[in-house]
Amino acid sequence: MLVLTRRAGEALQIGDNIQITILSVSGDRVRIGIEAPAEISVLRAELIRDIQSANVAAAASGRGKILKSGSIRPSRLTPPADS
C-alpha cells in the first residue's frame, strides 16, 4: 500500500485517466473527488462487500439473482418480498 499525505485542493493521478482530488478535510472526515472514465466502476468498498454477501445468500437460497457491482444501486440489495 502506498501512503501519501495530501492537503485540500491537492490531487494524485492514477495512470493516464484517473485523478483523485482532496476536496476538504474536517476532523476525521475527508471528502474526495474522483475523475475517471465512465467505463471504470467506482464503488465504496462496503457496497462491494454488501453485493458479495447478497450474492452468497442468493446462491445459497437457490432462488436469488446474482448482482453485478457495476449496475447495482443500494436499494436493490433488499430481496423482493414473497407474494
Explained architecture:
The chain is of the alpha+beta class. The protein has two domains: 1-40, no CATH class; 45-77, no CATH class. 20% of the residues lie in helices and 24% in strands. The protein has one helix and three strands. It has one helix spanning 45-61; strands spanning 11-14, 18-26, 29-35. It has a three-stranded antiparallel β-sheet, with no helix packed on it. Strand 2 (18-26) and strand 3 (29-35) form a beta hairpin. The longest helix is centred in the middle third of the chain and has 17 residues, at 45-61. It is elongated. Mean pLDDT is 81; it is low at 72-83.
Search tags:
single chain, 2 domains, three-stranded antiparallel β-sheet, elongated
Q: What is the 3D form?
A: elongated
Strands across the major sheet, in which order? 1-2-3
- How many DSSP E strands? 3
The helix/strand class is alpha+beta
Question: How many alpha or pi helices?
Answer: 1
What are the SSEs and their pairings?
Blueprint: E1 11-14, E2 18-26, E3 29-35, H1 45-61
Antiparallel strand pairs: 1-2, 2-3
